[in-house]
């Protein structure tokens, strides 16, 4: 069975993607900080008859990242690594003139530094896979200037560039930065608690990620809404 590591997998897009992959027969290593919600997500995925290893922890911890990769190795390797865990930098979001430097550091540590650290840890196993792929969950805030989204957007812009260079340096892999578009998630609620407008459920964009895995287009940056429209 193919094996995927998904960070930030206890809720939202991470959990939805985990369940979709499990339904396709993928074994999973799931990460999140909250053990309770992670256990629920793991049980839902395991209901599809696959092996699921839930490991709670902080992706900025090198020891935790090593545990994630070791768990995947025990399941057979790493065919897919999804960097979905994200930090906003401030909750709710604030203008750059008010953004605490420690908040920006946290966003960069979680969204960029930890993502690269996990990729580095998993690279030997990804290279061994015939279908090795990395998905960096990005955001339109990384390429558009939205008020109060500066710190988070800067981290996602850095993640996009990291993914782009990795795609050049590792031609045997597929490396996709994916902008999922607006979604109704706890992360968005924490970012803009006063915005209660309707937004798509995370499950609605999962077909875009599955399409990438099925069609394996060239490494690059993709928008989930466009991929879903093409189905």
Detailed description of the structure:
There is one protein chain. This protein is an alpha/beta fold. Helices cover 47% and strands 15% of the residues. The protein has a 7-stranded parallel β-sheet, sandwiched between helices. α1 (12-23) packs parallel to α2. The longest helix is centred in the middle third of the chain and has 28 residues, at 101-128. It is globular and about 50 Å long. The two termini are 26 Å apart.
Give the secondary structure arrangement, pairings included.
Layout lengths: L2 E4 L5 H12 L3 E6 L2 H12 L5 E5 L5 H14 L4 E4 L17 H28 L4 E5 L12 H20 L4 E6 L6 H6 L14 H10 L4 E4 H6 L2
Parallel strand pairs: 1-2, 1-4, 2-3, 4-5, 5-6, 6-7
Helix pairs in contact: 1-2, 3-4, 4-5
Q: What are the main properties of this structure?
A:
alpha/beta, 8 helices, 231 residues, 15% strand, single chain, 7-stranded parallel sheet, 7 strands
Briefly summarize what is shown.
The protein has 231 residues and is of the alpha/beta class.
How does the overall form come out from the CA principal axes?
globular
Biggest sheet, strands in spatial order? 3-2-1-4-5-6-7
How many DSSP helices?
A: 8
Binned strand content:
5-15%
Mean pLDDT: 97
Give the SSE string: EHEHEHEHEHEHHEH
| Class computed from helices, strands and strand pairing | alpha/beta
Our measurement of the CA-to-CA distance between the termini, rounded to an integer number of angstroms, reads 26 Å
Poorly predicted spans: none
Q: Regarding quaternary structure, how should these chains be classified? A: single chain
The radius of gyration computed from the alpha-carbon positions, rounded to a whole number of angstroms, is 16 Å
Number of β-strand runs: 7
> What share of the residues lie within helices?
40-55%
Largest sheet: 7 strands, parallel
């Amino acid at each position: 069975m193919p094996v995927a590591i998904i960070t930030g997998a206890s809720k939202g897009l991470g959990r939805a993607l985990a369940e979709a992959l499990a339904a396709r027969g993928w074994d999973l290593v799931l990460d999140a900080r909250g053990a309770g919600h992670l256990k629920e997500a793991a049980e839902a995925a395991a209901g599809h008859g696959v092996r699921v290893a839930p490991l709670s922890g902080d992706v900025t911890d090198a020891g935790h990242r090593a545990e994630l990769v070791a768990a995947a190795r025990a399941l057979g390797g790493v065919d897919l690594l999804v960097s979905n865990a994200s930090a906003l930098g401030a909750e709710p979001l604030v203008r750059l003139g008010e953004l605490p430097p420690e908040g920006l550091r946290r966003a960069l540590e979680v969204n960029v530094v930890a993502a690269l650290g996990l990729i580095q840890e998993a690279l030997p196993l990804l290279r061994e896979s015939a279908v090795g792929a990395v998905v960096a969950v990005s955001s339109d805030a990384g390429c558009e200037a939205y008020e109060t989204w500066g710190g988070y957007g800067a981290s996602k812009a850095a993640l996009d560039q990291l993914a782009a260079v990795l795609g050049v340096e590792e031609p045997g892999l597929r490396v996709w930065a994916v902008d999922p578009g607006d979604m109704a998630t706890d992360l968005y609620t924490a970012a803009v608690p006063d915005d209660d407008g309707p937004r798509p459920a995370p499950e609605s964009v999962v077909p875009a990620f599955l399409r990438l895995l099925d069609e394996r287009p060239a490494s690059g940056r993709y928008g989930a809404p466009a991929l879903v429209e093409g189905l």
